[in-house]
Amino acid sequence: MDISFLGGPRPQRGVGVVAPFDFALDRELWRWAPDDVSLHLTRTPFVPVEVSLDLARLVSEHETLGEAVRALNAVAPEVVAYACTSGSFVGGVAGERAMCEAMTRAGAVPALTTSGALLAALEELGARRIALVTPYTVSVTQSLEEYLAEAGIEVTRRAFMGLTRHIWKVPYRDVVEMARGAVRGSADALFISCTNLPTYDVIPQLEAELRIPVISANQVTMWAALRQLGTRAVGPYQALLDESARRGPVLPEEQEGWA
Fold first, then answer.
1. Cβ–Cβ < 8 Å for 135, 194
2. How far does CA 20 lie from the centroid of its chain?
3. In this predicted model, what pLDDT tens digit does every residue of 26-61 receive, in sequence order?
4. Using CA atoms in the order 200, 212, 178, 225, what is the torsion angle rounded to 10 degrees?
5. What is the secondary structure of 198-254 as a DSSP string?
6. Residue 32: phi, psi to the nearest 5?
7. Which helix (H) or strand (E) holds 146?
8. pTM value?
9. What counts of helices (H) and strands (E) characterise the chain?
10. What ranges in 22-137 are assigned the alpha helix state H?
11. CA distances (Å), origin 27, targets 85, 216, 218
12. How far apart (Å, rounded) are the C-alpha atoms in residues 103 and 177?
């Protein structure tokens, strides 16, 4: 059968992704990717350590990152993203920048991290005071707060779970409950941390309910990587991706003619 009319596969642009060995949400990253972008994922080597500051340091060593990026070079991505929040904030702002430099040296392409993308997303949204949700222990959560404070971001309230393993198994309902507990009082935005915590489907729901922008680790990573390519992440009505969503939902009493 002649199938030449199909024309072959569409040309693809590549985003290289370096993830920790226990990353389990590949499909979630793909949901933000437009059809003409392929994600090329590789993982850091396994280490027998639970989720902690020690693990964050081990999976973000420059030698480890360099080896991962050199493996990705074979498929020639246009940008490389390190998809791990704790691994990219554990060294502070200077440490995050040094990680990007190490990856760029290894791959000769632009590089970014989840925590760096977080700061870029907060700047994009004009958010300086944020509520925070994490699945981490108190020590890892505090380290994230210190990173944010160094960047001039105030955490107004936080909620965390204290998990050291199997974070990808947390159901959406638990994420929503934590978000509701964290957003009390004034906050410019809510950040849900950890690339292994599922968030894709709850973002629009939470934005409609809480009436502030809601951003997550995987979302900001993909947003920043795709922006580097000059294209946009795709997804349902999300403030970070759609400027019209930043005005918040219109309540019935705000609609014209409401009485």
1. yes
2. 13
3. 999 999 999 999 999 999 999 999 999 999 999 999
4. 40
5. --TTHHHHHHHHH-S-EEEHHHHHHHHHHHHTT-----SS-TTT-GGGGG-PPPGGG
6. -90, -10
7. helix 138-150
8. 0.92
9. 10, 8
10. 26-31, 53-58, 62-72, 85-89, 92-107, 114-125
11. 18, 15, 11
12. 37
